[in-house]
Design a protein that fits this description.
Helices cover about 45% and strands about 20% of the residues. It is of the alpha+beta class and about 350 residues long. It has a five-stranded antiparallel β-sheet with strand order 2-1-5-4-3, sandwiched between helices. Strands 7-9-10-12-11 form a five-stranded mixed β-sheet. A hairpin with a 5-residue loop joins strand 11 and strand 12. The longest helix is centred in the middle third of the chain and has 37 residues.
Length: about 350
Amino acid sequence: ERKAAELALGVRTELLNAIFELSPDGFISFDEAGCVSYVSPAFCEMTAITATALIGLGEQSFSDRLSGLCLPGRCFGGVARLRQHAASDQPDGRELIELRGPGKRVLDVGLRMGQASAVSQILYFRDVTHETEVDQMKSDFLSTAAHELRTPMASIYGFAELLMMGGNDADSTQEFLGIIYRQSELMMAILNELLDLARIESRRGKDFVIEPLSMQALVETVVNDFKLPAGRSKPVLDMPGQAICLMGDQKKLQQAILNVLSNAYKYSAPDGTVGISLQALAGDLVLCIRDAGIGMTPEQVSRVGERFYRADTSGRVPGTGLGMSIAKEIVGLHHGRIDITSQPGQGTAVSLVFTLELA
């Protein structure tokens, strides 16, 4: 019976060792004297501390060592504080710490009291860097969206209030109504594009209807359906004679091309020329839309695709700042990319690059 018990214990020990070694979470166990008795490989990888440097440390020495690796404001509060939290109304004591160094890794630290005399307590560490970054991005996005919606809403509210006060002549009334109408259009455009962007991101292309498409026909459809600004001429097309086929969703690709084409006209002079070229280069399909507009600095180019970012800050160019974000998402879900070359005062070339498939 003793031999059988020893064998079962050995199997259990091997199993637990395998689990700890394979787990992406880090573990630190303390013995009955309050000293570190076990350090998992994942914890060593997270913190770049070797197990031999920690084995035998008391909990205060361990706490000081880990706290020294943290950024100010998100330091490790110590094992004793976690134990106090665990002894209160919460079953587990938990806190977030942020490590120094490249990437600034964020760890969720928890404590569980041991049930055996050889293990007094166990600390576990979970890497939540990605979740923290996503939460921050969501918070920033909601803050920016609220700001963008508040601007037209303030105009609508203000001019509606003027109309309700009365005493305005016919011309003023018509002017105020025109402002309210245009700002309402802007709000609807922002909301529609936000919903469109959310649908694209949530579905991740699952609702795309992928089929072979003639890119020449696709570009011509976009150009024919595009509502040209008053007094502007159609874009100059440079299409190859050989049919070029791409596997993709027709409506979404049309939307991406239309967004880029619309920007080309918005940011170019009334007499400026917009050109669209299509060619096969080194196994890639390159659809390039060029304008002779205001152009952008390298810093501005690097930010194209950010939600609500607009290179023109004067407010004279209409738009929501979401068109290129949507185009980038659509092209990315087609396993493509968007390349941009631009110089201030010399126009911009936006290239939609896809893996080429010949018909």
